[in-house]
Design goal:
The complex is a heterodimer of chains A (241) and B (297).
Chain A: H1 3-17, H2 19-38, H3 49-79, H4 82-87, H5 93-121, H6 131-153, H7 158-175, H8 187-194, H9 197-208, H10 216-237
Chain B: E1 2-8, E2 11-17, E3 26-30, H1 37-45, E4 52-54, H2 66-70, E5 73-76, H3 88-99, H4 105-111, H5 127-139, E6 145-149, H6 157-172, E7 176-180, H7 184-190, E8 193-198, E9 201-206, H8 208-212, E10 216-221, H9 228-235, E11 239-241, E12 246-249, H10 255-268, E13 274-279, H11 282-290
Parallel strand pairs in B: 3-7, 3-8, 5-6, 6-7
Antiparallel strand pairs in B: 1-2, 1-4, 8-9, 10-12, 10-13, 11-12
Classes of the chains: A mainly alpha (241), B alpha/beta (297).
Chain lengths: 241, 297
């Protein structure tokens, strides 16, 4: 087995063994999707709440995996000197990073393989459904959130990083148009929400899967900027020990 | 290594250090906390960059050839370095694959005495078991040079014997073992050569015999509060009390002097509960060389 595959297998094994990570990446998105689709208490502004919720929860799933799960895991690897130990092996940083990216992609595939059928079962029927555009949005979103997760993981101590990632997750979930429409946010907050990566990703997914984006053109630009800038900042500020 | 200097901002952690570690030998690197040992070893591992000086490991510059070097060196960190939820055998197998030297994971686990704990996660291991797993990861490299940081720290007596045996076997196989330790007893048992760091500089470098040369002593235990003036008058040498019932005479262990000492103790009716003579213990050599308020090993 190659070094890359061995590292990828280790990353995936550890993710699967981590109950908190599974709850975050799969449990919470499924719960939000099912609960708020069946209990119509959110001001979604759509006839069927699942039409609004499904793209938002897919965006949430991307954020959970690429920012919080990756960020917390990497932060603890720093604290436990795992990165330092690996740096002395022939694995090399490019392979390590490639294994982490692939691991995130695999988890996202699993998330989508679970969430999309659940959404369809709840009555979601996106039209139009431009999945190619949605995948492009997911790729940009993954890059943007991974960058944010690694910036925090690369600078903060394990426990502080854990708190920061979870706190940011909640803020982006509530202000990012994932489960609460932009139109229902107060004016000042709405302006901020539109330039957040969570808001931009939810909006482009809503446009790609249902043609219901609030301002898709702007959201693509916002998402692309986050996708380019945050990994560059992460690369510049990340500390390996 | 020639003239190595490592700076962290204004702080000079390592200053103009030069030494070599030979293949087939155990080289112990000793020093008080903050003496520069870890920074020096991290430069050798390619993990940290030297501010100045020349470092070559197996003929390669660690800063430029970390990956090539990574295939040939084994590293054991002082603590951690393993995913807390990773299992023992899985972890060793992973590192065997990373090094690609064909090491047998199950055999390595057995060698470090962790077969019964092969399915346990790192966080469930005792401190000593974690050290042994960490050593197995270093051995997965089938290293030509092994950097071992505190390999016996927190390890019980039997585990220490296992680790000492592995370290000796590594050296016997031609590996250059660089052992950073606070445990002077371990260094004394294992090291062919000792390098003592203090305040970022090498203050002693040689075999144990060389470091002890010229510092012979007679160390004995007897009743507390011996009449040292009377003893000095009898044997012609001054004895110092270094413990409640422990005394040292700074002198070569000449048979005549030993006879005078034991005779005087017998005549005065004092017991002789312990007697050691010859070169100083490494601990005493270390204390002598690094004597400073607040220094520790």
């Amino acid at each position: 087995m190659s070094r890359f595959l061995s590292q990828l297998r280790t990353e995936l094994q550890l993710t699967l063994r981590n109950g908190e990570q599974l709850l975050l990446t799969l449990g919470i998105p499924v719960l939000l999707l099912v609960f708020f689709s069946l209990v119509d208490v959110l001001p979604t502004g759509t006839e069927d709440p699942v039409d609004f919720l499904a793209p938002g929860v897919l965006a949430l799933a991307v954020m959970s995996t690429s920012m919080v799960s990756l960020g917390i895991g990497t932060g603890f690897e720093r604290s436990y000197h795992v990165l330092k130990r690996l740096a002395t092996t022939p694995l090399g940083r490019p392979r390590l990073i490639a294994a982490k990216i692939t691991s995130v992609a695999v988890v996202e595939l699993v998330q989508f393989a679970v969430l999309v059928p659940v959404a369809y079962a709840l009555g979601w029927s996106p039209s139009p459904a431009n999945w190619a555009l949605a995948v492009a949005g997911v790729l940009l979103g993954t890059s943007a959130f991974a960058g944010i997760g690694l910036i925090l993981a690369g600078r903060l101590r394990g426990e502080i990083n854990l708190a920061a990632q979870n706190g940011l997750y909640l803020v982006l979930l509530l202000l990012g148009g994932m489960v609460i429409p932009f139109g229902k946010l107060p004016d000042g907050i709405r302006a901020v929400a539109h330039v957040l990566p969570s808001g931009a990703l939810a909006d482009v997914l809503r446009e790609a899967l249902g043609g219901a984006g609030a301002q898709p053109g702007t959201s693509w630009i916002v998402l692309a900027v986050w996708a380019v800038v945050t990994p560059l900042v992460a690369a510049a500020v990340f500390r390996w020990d | 290594m020639q003239g190595l200097t490592v700076r962290y901002g204004d702080l000079v952690a390592v200053r103009d250090v030069s030494f070599t570690a030979e293949a087939g030998m155990v080289t112990a690197v000793l020093g008080p906390n903050g003496a520069g040992k870890t920074s020096t070893i991290e430069v050798c591992e390619g993990y940290r960059t030297a501010s100045s000086g020349t470092v070559r490991v197996l003929g390669l510059d660690p800063a430029k050839h970390q990956r090539q070097l990574g295939e040939r060196i084994g590293v054991m960190l002082q603590e951690g370095g393993v995913y807390p939820s990773a299992r023992v055998l899985d972890t060793v197998r992973h590192y065997c694959t990373l090094y690609g030297k064909g090491a047998d994971a199950a055999q390595l686990v057995e060698q470090v005495g962790l077969t019964a704990r092969a399915g346990a996660t790192w966080r469930r291991l005792s401190g000593g078991e974690q050290q042994r797993l960490s050593l197995a990861l270093a051995m997965a490299a089938k290293p030509e040079v092994a950097f071992l940081d505190e390999p016996t720290s927190g390890v019980d007596v039997n585990g220490r014997d296992t680790i000492r045996g592995i370290v000796r076997d590594l050296a016997a196989s031609g590996c250059a073992v660089v052992l950073a330790t606070h445990e002077l007893d371990e260094a004394e048992r294992l090291a062919d050569r000792v390098i003592i760091f203090d305040q970022g500089q090498v203050i002693a470098d040689g075999t144990l015999a060389e470091l002890r040369k010229g510092h012979d002593e007679i160390r004995f235990r007897s009743d507390p509060h011996l009449d040292l003036t009377a003893l000095a008058a009898s044997i012609g040498m001054v004895a110092s009390q270094v413990g409640a019932d422990e005394y040292v005479i700074d002198a070569p262990p000449h048979p005549k002097l030993m006879a005078q000492l034991t005779t005087w103790l017998a005549e005065q009716g004092h017991p002789l509960t312990d007697l050691r003579a010859g070169g100083q213990r490494l601990e005493d050599v270390f204390r002598r060389l690094t004597a400073r308020d607040g220094g520790d090993a």
